[in-house]
Structures are given as structure tokens and as C-alpha cells.
Recover the amino acids of this structure.
């Protein structure tokens, strides 16, 4: 299977199924991700967020566009530290999220961590673990289960360029290719793994490597949310119809340091300026403005929502040290993933069984 770098091969065309409501939604969720992360960084600088803070500035189009194209029953394993938008599209509560950042107890992780390593089974999201890219293999496992049970579902996983040199990456690709499983690999090529540029990471582009595993692969503009939506939507159709896995390389740029503790002094200024001019939110806002969408109203709503959530989050209590060792192991049967009333964009409305 030859790799293709042609976006049309991903099923993109002028006949986008996106409605005006979807377009406004895509912009709103990208804006929401940025506003939440800007607040998170502010709270971190005020000493209210322990540890560090990680954001995905400049990469909002990837996680928002990809998640928009999934059905609510399609699990994501797992959104990474640049992929907050996937959680937001699936309906993560903002007050809980800010409490989580601040390590408060009545929240998703009950104060055990303040990072973007959380998951929520009820939303079909498996939390990430730090060892990258272990969760890629978990996504392939989901896809295998769907195949065995005859379910029309597909799994999606995100990974960065840094992950492509690890063994798990190759194992996941190989397994998905051999069994032609319903899985989507979203490759967030943000040009650097911490301070290591891609030129020092691989001699052969992972998109070209994919062909060696029997995985269909394409490259798209990761700063164009509609391109990400279209590529993921086509990959999902292909997956649930038995066409096998797809790797989507999204070309984008990490506009901040690795985390709040990293000033990214190793990045070249002119490169960042070039990418700043292609900011995914600004460019999409401009495009929608030309279509008479009230972008300012969307931004105002986002700013107000986030500000209210931060105020409400301040009241949460801190966790009791005596509870630290609870919930380490699963008691009884694990709950099913994403089989409840998960929120999703409304796309991919197919019967799942
Ligand atoms: C196996 C493993 N080695 C090292 C790390 C530490 N680490 C966390 S994020 C990161 C950089 C990952 O780069 P990339 O996958 O390109 O994602 P990006 O941070 O650029 O979004 C590293 C080295 C890790 N989490 N797992």
C-alpha cells in the first residue's frame, strides 16, 4: 500500500458535510482549548497549579478536528498533553478540569495529578500513561475487540513525532497492518520532541514507513481544522467498512515550550514566526468571518464560560493524604468504555452493531 501525501485521497472534497453549526462548533472548541490553557498557565504562574503545566498552543485544530469526526462510541486512547480539545469535545466539565489542574479532591483524578493524563471511561476516553507511545497498542487492542465482536466502531490514538522511534510504535503499526484493524493513528508532527528536531529523530519519514506495515498513510495540514476533520472522517468510514487502519500525519507546530518550565530557547524565532502567521484559530476565525459567522460572539461566550469555571473551581477542597493509596487497583469488573450516553459532535451517526 503506497503512502499518499495527497489530501484528496483522504476523501476531502469541496462537498464537506460540515454544517454552519459544525463550523462554529469547531472554532468554539479550538477557542475553548486555548482559553482554558491560557488560564491554566496563569494559575500555574500564580503558584496554584502544582508541578508544571503543559499546553497544545498551535495544535488545537488536530485534536478538535479529529474528535469531531468520531462517533461517541469510538474510543480515544489516548489524548496527549497537546490534545485537551478531545476531552472538551467529549464534554469534560470545565469546573472539574480546573480543579484537576489545581490538584483538588472533588475532580476527575481526585487530586492525584494535575496534568492532562486523565481519562473518562464514560466519555470513551482512556487516559494516557507517561510512557510514550504505549497507548497506541491499547488502541489497536480496542480495534481487535471490535473486529472480534463484529461492532462497527473504530479506535483513535494520538502520538507525536518523538513516539515514532519507540518499539511500541512499530508493534502497534505492525499489528494493525497484519489484521487490517479499524484504528486511526493521528500523528501530530509538531517538528520537535522536547528539543530534538525531526531531522535527528528519523531517517525515513514515518508516513513512508507506514507502507512497510500495510498501513494507509497521508499527510495533511494540521493547522486546518476542516482538513483534519475530513481526513479523520474518511479514515473512520474506511475503518468501519473493513478497509483497515489509516495513519494521518498532521503537520503542525508546538508554539510553546514542552511545558511551562521550558522557555523553548532552542527553537528558531523565524520558524515560530512563520507558524504563528498560520495560527489555526486565527486563520479559521478569518475564514468564518468571511462567511458572516459572528466570531466575536463565540469568543465572548468562551471567555465568559472559562472565567466562570475558574471562579467556581477555586472553592474545591484539597485531597486528604490518607486517601492517596485508594483506587490504585480496579475493584470488581471494569466499566465498559464509551458505551454510555457520550456526547459527540453528531457526525458518524451509524448503528454501531
Ligand atoms: C518512553 C518515554 N521516554 C521519554 C518520555 C519523556 N517525554 C515526555 S514528552 C516527551 C517529548 C515527546 O515528543 P513528541 O512525541 O514529539 O510530542 P510533543 O511533546 O512534541 O508534543 C518526552 C521525551 C516519555 N514520556 N516516555
Amino acid at each position: 500500500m503506497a503512502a499518499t501525501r495527497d489530501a484528496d485521497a483522504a476523501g476531502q472534497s469541496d462537498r464537506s458535510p460540515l454544517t454552519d453549526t459544525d463550523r462554529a462548533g469547531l472554532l468554539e472548541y479550538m477557542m475553548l482549548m486555548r482559553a482554558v490553557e491560557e488560564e491554566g498557565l496563569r494559575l500555574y504562574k500564580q503558584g496554584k497549579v502544582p508541578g508544571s503545566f503543559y499546553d497544545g498552543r498551535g495544535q488545537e485544530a488536530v485534536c478538535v478536528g479529529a474528535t469531531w469526526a468520531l462517533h461517541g462510541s469510538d474510543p480515544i486512547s489516548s489524548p496527549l498533553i497537546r490534545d485537551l480539545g478531545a476531552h472538551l469535545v467529549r464534554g469534560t466539565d470545565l469546573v472539574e478540569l480546573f480543579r484537576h489542574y489545581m490538584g483538588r479532591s472533588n475532580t476527575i483524578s481526585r487530586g492525584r495529578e494535575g496534568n492532562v493524563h486523565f481519562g473518562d471511561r464514560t466519555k470513551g476516553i482512556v487516559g494516557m500513561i507517561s510512557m510514550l507511545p504505549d497507548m497506541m497498542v491499547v488502541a489497536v487492542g480496542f480495534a481487535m475487540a471490535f473486529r472480534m465482536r463484529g461492532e462497527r466502531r473504530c479506535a483513535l490514538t494520538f502520538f507525536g513525532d518523538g513516539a515514532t522511534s519507540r518499539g511500541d510504535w512499530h508493534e502497534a503499526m505492525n499489528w494493525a497492518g497484519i489484521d487490517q484493524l479499524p484504528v486511526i493513528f493521528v500523528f501530530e508532527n509538531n517538528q520537535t520532541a522536547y528539543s530534538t528536531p525531526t531531522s535527528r529523530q528519523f531517517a525515513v519519514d514515518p508516513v513512508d514507513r507506514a507502507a512497510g506495515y500495510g498501513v494507509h498513510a497521508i499527510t495533511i495540514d494540521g493547522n486546518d481544522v476542516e482538513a483534519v476533520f475530513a481526513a479523520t472522517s474518511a479514515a473512520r468510514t474506511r475503518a468501519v467498512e473493513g478497509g483497515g487502519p489509516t495513519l494521518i500525519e498532521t503537520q503542525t507546530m508546538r508554539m510553546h515550550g514542552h511545558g511551562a518550565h521550558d522557555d523553548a530557547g532552542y527553537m528558531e524565532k523565524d520558524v515560530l514566526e512563520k507558524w504563528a502567521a498560520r495560527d489555526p484559530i486565527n486563520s479559521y476565525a478569518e475564514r468564518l468571518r468571511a462567511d458572516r459567522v459572528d466570531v466575536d460572539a463565540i469568543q465572548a461566550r468562551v471567555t465568559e464560560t472559562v472565567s466562570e469555571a475558574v471562579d467556581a473551581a477555586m472553592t474545591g477542597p484539597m485531597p486528604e493524604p490518607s486517601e492517596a493509596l485508594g483506587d490504585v487497583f480496579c475493584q470488581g469488573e471494569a466499566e465498559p468504555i464509551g458505551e454510555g450516553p457520550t456526547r459527540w459532535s453528531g457526525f458518524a451517526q451509524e448503528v454501531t452493531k
Summary: The first strand starts at residue 76 and ends at 77. Residues 82, 130-132, 160-163, 166, 190, 192-194, 254, 258 surround thiamine diphosphate (CB under 6 Å).
